[in-house]
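We modelled the chain as a single entity of 383 amino acids. Its sequence is:
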Amino acid sequence: MSAKNVVILGSTGSIGINTLKVISRFPEQFRVVGLTAYNNLELLKDQVRKFKPKYLAVRHDGINYFRNNRLFEQLNVLDVDEGLDELVSSSSVDIVVIGMRGSSAIKPFLAAVKAGKTVAPANKEALVVAGRMIMQEAKKAKAMIIPVDSEQSAIFQCLEGRNHAELDKVYLTASGGRLYNVSASKFDTLSVAEILKHPRWKMGKKITVDSATLMNKGFEVIEAVRLFGLNPDQIEVLIHPEAIIHSMVGFKDGSIIAQLGVTDMRLPIQYALTYPKRLSTGLKELDFFKLAKLTFKKPDVKKFPALDLAFYAIKKDGTLPCVLNAADEVAVEAFLERRLAFSKIVKVVEKVLTKHRCIANPSLNDILETDAWAREETEKLIR
């Protein structure tokens, strides 16, 4: 069987790095044909030397470096801000892994599904902002979307081969984040550095703050609605501090199927790449005899109102999820820059949501205009 050709959008981030680790285990089954990155040129150079992709998409300083270096003469170098649609649509590409963050992933995601590719997204924003449109285009082109986020991958695996009409409820699990055991009155006494100390994982700054507010879990609710055609009322969020059960699916007969595993992103990444096969990961297996307990708690939505905001946005739908995402991006950035108190992040997002005049069935242009409006409105409120 010939090797599958893989493009990785965001190869120098954690998803990209872990994807390349998986590919390194199976050199006969996967070939890296394209890498993209916005920064971290030193790591990108190492990746290009090792995996020898045909295509590379970088920013202007990187373009000049790679085009003018004799070591990379065979490399087709593109502008990362303009060339991603062309790259993911190439006839030589089989799988597109989306590890880049932010709403800038919307256009290449759409281009990939329109071209009928298998897409393995770890990016939440594109599905939150334009998920309905992406799923419609994927259906038309018969593109396969296999999520890489551990929670969405777990739901995908639990539903695989089953009648979706028999589905009753989906249980999304959350570790609780940095502040679950901290009193709300103490939130603003913690420094940015303290907020960024996640109790379990080392992640990017934005996603760590979203984990602390539970907005990240709210985005996952919206993602699940899009990916699996769910009604928001079919989704329940559970705080599960041990992070062993990645999600569960309940059926109408009362049966519940759960996906368990060690917390390592290489598991869902490898599943997306090798689907429908399952191959050895080389990772430690889950040791049931070392599990002291598995606990579950209801999320405290008074303390963490971001979760309710996300449910509100997806129930109203239209352009509201877009506003939620854009306002949160700006508010979190302001917090990281110490221009906004932590406790004000969700309050600012809520104010922007209430000011927005929702468009029920937005076009891509409507979404892009709404995104720009929400960012400007959020910045005004912060100032």
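As a brief sanity check on the tokenised model: DSSP finds 15 helices and eleven strands in the chain. The longest helix spans residues 364-382.
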